Amino acid sequence: MQILITIGVILLVLIAYIGINAMRLKKAVTNLTQEQFIEGYRKAQLIDVREQKEFDAGHILGARNIPSTTLRQRHKEIRPDLPVYLYCQNTGRSARAALFLKKRGYNQIYQLEGGFRTWTGKVKTKK
């Protein structure tokens, strides 16, 4: 019986944690469809938060690579007064990057819904 209560408490805490993170994320970043993303990214700072190797294999034309692993050191390269368009492979890293930037005063943060894996627009690769 004690084990069931413990498991129930753990599940409750886990569900609460996931819910709180979802609400924080919803306040930090706006998800955009590919069409919405294309409409605005040329007038914004387009940041690919994937690692350099992934970026070199193919990225959205005009994107700048600031890997999520270096964002803590490099976030000042991103202007807080301009919109920030983020993307990664799926949206996990860009969502965490958005939360990080939001805590530092960035307010216009957008991410590509579905990430780069769903992108069908122009791509640039390094040879």
TrEMBL record:
Signal peptide (from-to): none
Originating organism: Lysinibacillus contaminans
Domain of life: Bacteria
Recorded coiled-coil stretches: none
One family name in Pfam for this protein: Rhodanese
Lineage, uppermost ranks: Bacteria, Bacillati, Bacillota, Bacilli, Bacillales
Protein name according to UniProt: Rhodanese domain-containing protein
Location of the Rhodanese domain: 40-124
